[in-house]
Design goal:
Length: 618
C-alpha cells in the first residue's frame, strides 16, 4: 500500500431508507479524530464484483487524502434491498443517502459527488435535489440522450438497455445477504422492465446544468463531450471542464484534479482548483486552456459549399446536388462509446467518403486549429423529407488519407424547402498545412443511426449552404495544465480466463450475393474472472447489426448477453441471459426484449417484452 497522508479503514454498511429498504454500501475512511467530508459514488453498478477492482484502487486513495469515500449500490441492484427504481426514484434515494451520510458523527456535514457514465448523469440529478449537503461534484462522461439530432440511435441504445437489464437481473450475493438472496432475486426479476422503450419515448431532456460547483470531464471522442462543454457554458456555480485524449470512463490522471476540487469545496483548502481555466483541452500534443468559455480566442470561419468548399461531378445546369447513399454508409464510424480498444477508433475514411458526396477545400496554406462545435446550414429541396442528413468533417492528407475530425446528424420529419441546421460534435484538432478540409454528406449512417423509411435521400443547393467551423488563435503550450497519474494502491488479484476462441473486437462481413452487410462486436469483458473472495464471474456479449445495401427497412440490431455468477464454496450458481432486438418498419421501431434466469442450470424465471415505438416519438 503506498504511503498517503492518512491511514485508512474499510467497512461495509447498511443504509436504511425511510420505507425500510436497506442499501448496501462500502466505506473507506481516514483514521482521524476530526470529522471529514464524504465523497459519494452512487451507482447501479455492483460494488462487490463489477466495480470492485476500480473501487479498491480509487477510494482508498481518496480516503488516504482526507475524505471519506463511499460506494453505494442503488435500490434493487447488487446487494441492496428493494426493487429497481425509476430515474426519479434513483435520484430521490440518493438524496436520502446524502442526508444519512452527512449526519454521521464522523462526517463534517459536507458531501461531494463522484460519477462516471450513468452514475455521472445520476450525480447531476442528485446535486439538484440535495443542494444543502452537496457542496461539489465531479462528473465524467455523463450518459446522454438516446436520440441524436432528432434521429434514433441504433448504436449503443439497445446495448446499453441490455446491460441495464442484465445488471438489475443479477442476484444478490449470498456472501453478503445470506439465505435471503433467492427471495430477493425472484422479487427483483418479477418487477423488472426493460428501459429502452421508456428512453425512446421520453421527452427531450433539458440542457444540463450544474446545481453545485462541478468539475466535468470527457474524452473528445466520447458522446458526452457536448454535455461537458454545455456545462461549462451555463451560468451559476463554478464549473471547470476538461476534454482529453481518454476513452469512456474515469481516467486515473483526473483523480488529483478531482482531489483539488474536493479539497477546495469540502475542506476549504486552496489548492488552486479555481485557478484552472474554464476549459482545458488536449490538442494532439499539448494541453491548452481557455478562460472564459466561450473563448474570445475562438472565431467562426464560414465556408460556402460552392466556394471555399467544392464538390465534383455536379451537372452545370442543375443547381441541386443530390445525396443518396447506400444503406451501409457508416460502417467505418467506429464505436459510439469508445472504451479504449483499437477497433473503437474510426479508420481511414476514404471508403466512407466514396459512399458520400464530398466538398473539399484547397490545401490549407497554414495549420488550422479547431476548438468547439462546427455547425452546418444546408438549403434543401422541398422534397427532402423525411430524410436523414449525416455530415462528417475530415482532414485529407496529401496522400489521400482521410481522418475523421467530427460528425453530426439531423433527422428531417417534415418537408423543408428551407435551411436545415446540423450541429456537429465538439472537436479539438489541428489540421496541418497542406491538408484539405472535407465535408462529407450522406443520407444514412448505419449502424449509428436508424435509417429512414425511404432510400430517396435529399438534395441541397450548395450556393445557399454554409459550414461554420470554430477556429482558435494559435497558442503556445501553457505550464501547469498537464495531468499526471497518481500512485494508486495495487488492484486486488483478479484471475482472468479468456475464451479459447475469443471473438474479434469488431468484424464486418459483406455477403455479395445477398447485398447484405453484417457487423459483430464483442466487448473486452468477455471471459471468466475469479475474484479474491472466491466469486467466479463469467461474461459473454455479442452485438450484431445487419442491413441490405438498398433496403433501409432491412436494418436489424441485436445484443445478447450472458452473465454467470458462482461461489463454488457455497454451491451457488446463477446465470442471467438477456437479449434486446430492434427492427423497423415505415412508421415504427419494434423492441423485443428477453430475459431468462437460471439457478444451477434450472430455469427459475423467463419473460419477454414487445414494444412498438413511433419513429417520431416523443
Amino acid at each position: 500500500m503506498p504511503s498517503y497522508p492518512y491511514r485508512t479503514t474499510r467497512e461495509d454498511l447498511r443504509l436504511p431508507l425511510p420505507d425500510g429498504t436497506e442499501l448496501f454500501a462500502r466505506l473507506w475512511r481516514p483514521v482521524t479524530d476530526e470529522p471529514v467530508p464524504v465523497v459519494l459514488e452512487y451507482s447501479t453498478g455492483r460494488l462487490t464484483d463489477w466495480t470492485a477492482t476500480d473501487d479498491a484502487r480509487r477510494h482508498p486513495w481518496i480516503a488516504g487524502h482526507g475524505h471519506a469515500a463511499v460506494r453505494v449500490d442503488a435500490r434493487g441492484h447488487g446487494n441492496s434491498g428493494g426493487l429497481p427504481p425509476t430515474a426519479d426514484g434513483l435520484a430521490a434515494d440518493g438524496a436520502e443517502v446524502v442526508r444519512l451520510l452527512a449526519a454521521r458523527p464522523w462526517c463534517s456535514g459536507r458531501v461531494g459527488l463522484l460519477g462516471a457514465g450513468a452514475a455521472g448523469e445520476t450525480a447531476l440529478r442528485l446535486a439538484a435535489l440535495a443542494p444543502d449537503a452537496v457542496h461539489a461534484a465531479v462528473v465524467v462522461c455523463p450518459d446522454g440522450p438516446h436520440r441524436l439530432g432528432g434521429a434514433v440511435l441504433a448504436a449503443d441504445g439497445h446495448t446499453r438497455a441490455t446491460d441495464r437489464l442484465a445488471d438489475a437481473a443479477r442476484p444478490p450475493d449470498p456472501r453478503y445477504v445470506g439465505d435471503d438472496w433467492r427471495a430477493m432475486w425472484l422479487a427483483r426479476l418479477d418487477a423488472l422492465e426493460p428501459p429502452l422503450a421508456d428512453w425512446l419515448t421520453a421527452a427531450p431532456a433539458p440542457a444540463p446544468v450544474a446545481a453545485v460547483p462541478t468539475l466535468a470531464a470527457a474524452g473528445w471522442s466520447d458522446p458526452s463531450a457536448a454535455t461537458v462543454l454545455a456545462l461549462a457554458t451555463t451560468t451559476g456555480p463554478d464549473v471547470r471542464a476538461v476534454l482529453g485524449p481518454w476513452p469512456h470512463g474515469l481516467p486515473d490522471e483526473l483523480l488529483p484534479e478531482a482531489l483539488r476540487w474536493y479539497d477546495h469545496w469540502l475542506r476549504d483548502i486552496d489548492a488552486g482548483a479555481l485557478a484552472a481555466p474554464a476549459v482545458r483541452s488536449w490538442r494532439a500534443d499539448r494541453w491548452t486552456g481557455d478562460d472564459p468559455w466561450p473563448s474570445p480566442e475562438v472565431r467562426e470561419v464560414h465556408y460556402g459549399l460552392d466556394g471555399p468548399l467544392r464538390t465534383a461531378g455536379t451537372a452545370s445546369e442543375d443547381r441541386w446536388v443530390h445525396v443518396r447513399s447506400p444503406q451501409h454508409t457508416g460502417l467505418d464510424a467506429g464505436a459510439y462509446v469508445p472504451l479504449g480498444r483499437p477497433a473503437d477508433q474510426p479508420p481511414d475514411q476514404r471508403e466512407e467518403d466514396g459512399r458520400s458526396v464530398c466538398f473539399d477545400s484547397l490545401p490549407l496554406p497554414e495549420p488550422l486549429d479547431l476548438l468547439g462545435t462546427p455547425a452546418l446550414t444546408l438549403h434543401l429541396h422541398s422534397a427532402a423529407a423525411p430524410a436523414l442528413i449525416a455530415a462528417r468533417l475530415c482532414a485529407v492528407a496529401p496522400d489521400g488519407t482521410s481522418t475523421l475530425l467530427t460528425r453530426g446528424v439531423r433527422a428531417l420529419t417534415a418537408p423543408s424547402g428551407a435551411d436545415a441546421a446540423v450541429d456537429l460534435a465538439p472537436t479539438g484538432a489541428t489540421v496541418p498545412a497542406g491538408h484539405r478540409l472535407r465535408l462529407a454528406l450522406s443520407s444514412t449512417y448505419w449502424p449509428w443511426i436508424w435509417p429512414g423509411p425511404e432510400p430517396a435521400g435529399f438534395a441541397l443547393d450548395p450556393s445557399r449552404s454554409t459550414l461554420a467551423v470554430p477556429v482558435r488563435r494559435p497558442v503556445a503550450p501553457a505550464d501547469g495544465l498537464a495531468f499526471r497519474s497518481p500512485t494508486l494502491p495495487l488492484p486486488p488479484p483478479l484471475h482472468l480466463t479468456e475464451p479459447l476462441t475469443a471473438r474479434p473486437e469488431r468484424v464486418t462481413v459483406h455477403d455479395i450475393g445477398r447485398r447484405e452487410w453484417r457487423t459483430e462486436l464483442s466487448p473486452a469483458t468477455d471471459g471468466t474472472r475469479t475474484h479474491p473472495d472466491g466469486l467466479v464471474r463469467t461474461e459473454q456479449t455479442v452485438t450484431a447489426y445487419r442491413v441490405l445495401t438498398a433496403t433501409p427497412l432491412s436494418a436489424r440490431a441485436r445484443t445478447d448477453r450472458t452473465t454467470r455468477l458462482e461461489r463454488p464454496a457455497l454451491g451457488w450458481d446463477a446465470t442471467v441471459h438477456t437479449r434486446t432486438e430492434l427492427r423497423c418498419d415505415p412508421t415504427h421501431l419494434t423492441v423485443h426484449a428477453h430475459l431468462r434466469a437460471e439457478e444451477a442450470g434450472n430455469i427459475v424465471f423467463t419473460r419477454e417484452w414487445r414494444h412498438r415505438i413511433p419513429r417520431g416519438a416523443p
